[in-house]
Amino acid sequence: MSQKQEEENPAEETGEEKQDTQEKEGMLPERAEEAKLKAKYPSLGQKPGGSDFLMKRLQKGQKYFDSGDYNMAKAKMKNKQLPSAGPDKNLVTGDHIPTPQDLPQRKSSLVTSKLAGGQVE
Amino acid sequence: MLVCQGPGIGSVTHKSTWALGARTKKWLLADVISTVEFSHSGDLLATGDKGGRVVIFQREQENKSRPHSRGEYNVYSTFQSHEPEFDYLKSLEIEEKINKIRWLPQQGAARFLLSTNDKTIKLWKISERDKRAEGYNLKDEDGRLRDPLRITALRVPILKPMDLMVEASPRRIFANAHTYHINSISVNSDHETYLSADDLRINLWHLEITDRSFNIVDIKPANMEELTEVITAAEFHPHQCNVLVYSSSKGTIRLCDMRSSALCDRHSKFFEEPEDPSSRSFFSEIISSVSDVKFSHSGRYMMTRDYLSVKVWDLNMESRPVETHQVHEYLRSKLCSLYENDCIFDKFECCWNGSDSAIMTGSYNNFFRMFDRTTWRDVTLEASRENSKPRASLKPRRVCAGGKRKKDEVSVDSLDFSKKILHTAWHPVENIIAVAATNNLYIFQDKAN
User: Which SUPFAM superfamilies match (chain B) (predicted)?
Assistant: First the structure.
């Protein structure tokens, strides 16, 4: 549904009332969703669109590997395994030190796009 | 001629469907299409993908002997535009994914386009070669050098026709100007300059000069802890070469005039829709983030896409949009799971038709939406092989938000959120649209007569 807002002036009051109820109805699902999220993640910050989220966005692609750290950690651990990266290899948390396995492999050489294969139907 | 016509939206007519892409379900991540753009005349259609490749399609000329192929788009050229890189100094992986392609207006026989990944913009020249010189004096036809002592006569090489060869060559490489990730490029109406925008800065380039660019917008705070918003999209005005707009993650749009000052940190106009504070939630700012901004062809309006809606703004009115079209309002009750699976951060694009009478944007489940601004009708269509046969009309789709699901309706819970249509393009003149559904490209045409 689309709303045209420029013709609101003559019927402004009823328009606003309508918008109020629409917004209240629209608000309920959003607030319910927010409650669900807070229940699952109680530590979720007060400022959702704030620095943390944006900083993560700006740092996309950052991968750190320090061979010194890696070898020191290996020596410390001796026979134990280093903590692995887990499913999300982009997040470096806790004691995890990026290992060569975590870094992206150099991608394979050029393969022609399948779109250029001319398979038209 | 409007795309949405006839009694009710039910009779959207589309003549031909071409689905281009892999036949099998198995496809590589590299095949995901990341940008689609028609050239200024519409005869060429360029796509970029996650693997850094560009594929250009060309519209076939009308041919009486093959009436069915009228107006079909076939592969014209393909090349590797960008490669994956690793910035060792910053420990940063640079994806080869093509974020945007923008065509330059045609000036000669050759065609030019700009393609960009996160860090580097490249100017590509695409030229045709259909003649070959034969009869050289110093070498044979197979290329071997002739013995100069044996050359007794001179001949003039002649040009002979050959099979058409389309060559793409990089003419300019605009690098090292962006610390953050490039999200937009836009060619200026002066045909000499263009802008590139990343999360925090916008640079102005001259197409001929690669070692310098001017920074015209910089929103990086002195203390990064104070960062509250980023630039999400930017575009030059289609006619006024001094005007540009950029949108932010907070749902605002700023219009800048390069004549007023060299550094456009202070906007000339500020567009923001007032928000009802009582309806604010955790998700409010995230879903208000503008993922795309596009000027109308007329230059009088601009359109913004946020997570749930498309808004049309009159450039003369900053206080609120003149139109708001709901794309998939039923997702408001799914925001929690959409936040968890990161879909709430999906960046949908939007586009105008040639006459600015209709707008189009994508959604989930391979659905895309079209809104007719004059008749105030809208329609949901699906781009998928299973549901559309070539040369048949597209059937409108309906999503059931709740309650009893009618026959032919799709319930919100059965929507496939991995099938997102982020990129769509509309032919600059005719009713032909290109829709990218993950790794497949669909081209739909309006039935003539």
Answer: WD40 repeat-like
